Amino acid sequence: MKLVFATGNKGKLSEVRKIFENTSYEILSKENFDSFPDVIEDRETFEENAIKKAKEIFEFSGIPAIADDSGLIVDQLNGAPGVYSARYAGENCTYDDNNNKLLQELSAFPEPHNAAFVCYAAYYDGDLILVVRGELKGMIISEKTGDQGFGYDPVFIPDGSKNTLAQYSAEEKNKISHRGKAFESLKKILSKMEL
Ligand code: ITT
After folding, report:
1. 154-to-37, 63, 119, 121, 163 alpha-carbon distances in Å
2. Which atom of ligand 1 is nearest to 67's Cα?
């Protein structure tokens, strides 16, 4: 059973491939196609953007598609960077640029900087739309630590942990993360429905 993951993010792809390892699902993505549309994420919510990505990639490939729209929500920044997490420091910015901007914005506020990662995972097969959500609560620390993962992982400590997400292996991160929770739920629903 093939699923096309509508992403250009290699970090997400390797985490989600691990979740579907040893199942009957084979996760295809950008690298399996000669061309792959870059979906414009112009919706106001994670949910709508996730559905848009899954729909456009299903229409392109004709294969059931999954997508992930995710981001970081910081309480003291009124929910920013939120749906703009990927381009917080501007178009074509690096993960490091985003982390620097986040730490700069938060330097005006006292610790702790409470935050949460959220992930909406969508599925679309031309007929059925499914959307599930996962969340991971934690806090932002002012020193980037660790070299695993991607994005804001080096500055995010999950509740109950002493380490940043960038100090977790992909397997350990998947056990607790917003993405791990969302795609585990999606995997369960798909296999129950025999899709
Ligand atoms: P696709 O849309 O191609 O999947 P993207 O990176 O543009 O890739 P999003 O629009 O969903 O994905 O933006 C998510 C951003 O939120 C991502 O680029 C990171 O900056 C951040 N983010 C999401 N999940 C994360 C995680 O597990 N660890 C660290 N940062 C994460």
Report:
1. 30, 35, 18, 23, 9
2. 4
**Domain residue extents for the chain:** 2-193
Mutation test of ligand 1: which of 36, 43, 70, 178 has the most ligand atoms closer than 8 Å to its C-beta? Answer: 70
Protein fold of 2-193: Maf protein (3.90.950)
Contact predicate 121/67, CB 8 Å: yes
Q: pLDDT tens, position by position, for the chain (195 residues)? A: 999 999 999 999 999 999 999 999 999 999 999 999 999 999 999 999 999 999 999 999 999 999 999 999 999 999 999 999 999 999 999 999 999 999 999 999 999 999 999 999 999 999 999 999 999 999 999 999 999 999 999 999 999 999 999 999 999 999 999 999 999 999 999 999 988
CA distance 131 to 44: 16
Known catalytic residues?
A: 69
Cβ within 8 Å of residue 107, ≥6 positions away: 142
Work out which ligand 1 atom sits closest to the CA atom of 173.
27
Instruction: Provide the whole-model pTM.
Output: 0.97
- Two structure tokens written together for 90: 């501007």
Check if 177 has its Cβ closer than 6 Å to any atom of ligand 1. Answer: yes
